[in-house]
Give the backbone structure.
Amino acid sequence: MTELKNDLLLRALLRQPVNRTPLWIMRQAGRYLPEYLEARQSAGSFMKLCKTPELACEVTLQPLRRFPLDAAIIFSDILTIPDVMGLGLHFVEGEGPKFEDPIDTESEIHNLPRPDVNESLHYVMEAISLARRELKGSVPLIGFSGSPWTLAAYMLEGGSSKDFATAKAMIHDEPKLMHTLLGKLAETATDYLNAQIEHGAQAVQIFDSWGGILSPEAFREFSLRYIEQIVSGLKRENEGRQVPVIVFSKGANTHLEALADTGCNALGLDWTISLQEARRRVGDRVALQGNLDPAIVRCKPDIIRQQAGNVLNSFGQGDGHVFNLGHGITPDIDPDHVDVLVNAVWEMSPAFH
Ligand code: CP3
């Protein structure tokens, strides 16, 4: 077993005792950091950063050089899966992701390949190995994948969308075809996460960023079911240690009990539910991760401290909490504000353990 100097994240995700609340930040490597913008500029594009393991590793480590975070998350994107399934991903400045060849016919769905992720996403695996080497056991490394529904939504829409109306229409017009697509994505996402674990990811997170736009019935049949399939197919132990699984289904707080039943170790929560309520509903089964509103990090330092304190208070005394934002940090944030947040959690959280 490789030595891990700070295992607070893994312990908290497994609801084991810790002496303070561990913290990491979704999108912690990103555009609010000047050194990230510089790295992206010299690489030429976001995809070049992702596809060059040395650069992806470098960017993964950037936030940890600034802030005493309790985890690194491998720098990549959820849309690398559709990219290697043949859709051709690129990013248009200010517009987000775009696929050259979105899927729009039945035969394209039937013909989607099951990629050999060790081969086609070799660059991610190499970045993970490099990052593990560079981290030298200081903190754990998190791997991730998109949920099948969230990936399908982007693949059918061809990029970002406010309402993913094309994908939602397909759920109702062509449910069988949608299940075919989701089944294929679940298989590949399982392969992908297992490969990440084998290459050294010590915890994994499934991002179901668009779960919350579905009706309750559609959520259970088209999102939840496939998250469950992935979780049940994951390798849960590596290097003699448990590999915790976090499910973050944004906007799906009505389904907390069902999400906790997927077999995951922890639920990521957005800021629209109190941790107190979430803990009452599922805290005896899973750890909770979150859930400061990302908008708060723009506020004055006193407010950041106060609101971080409210999140800690809302979870209350005891173990099984990982501090995070309720969604990714936004590009407009001043890194000094992140410092305030991280220090606040370091200072206040020991009192809760
Ligand atoms: O958390 C981390 O630091 C790891 C890196 C990471 C990125 N994307 C880097 C990234 C992770 C975990 C993701 C996940 C991701 N990607 C999700 C799920 C999380 C969420 O936010 O809900 C989604 C939906 C995507 C798809 C995606 N990638 C979009 C919609 C965009 C455009 C976003 C925007 O604000 O323009 C991206 C691009 C992206 N992924 C960036 C980063 C740092 C910005 C790209 C740039 O530098 O120009």
Q: What stands out?
A: The chain is about 50% helix and 15% strand.
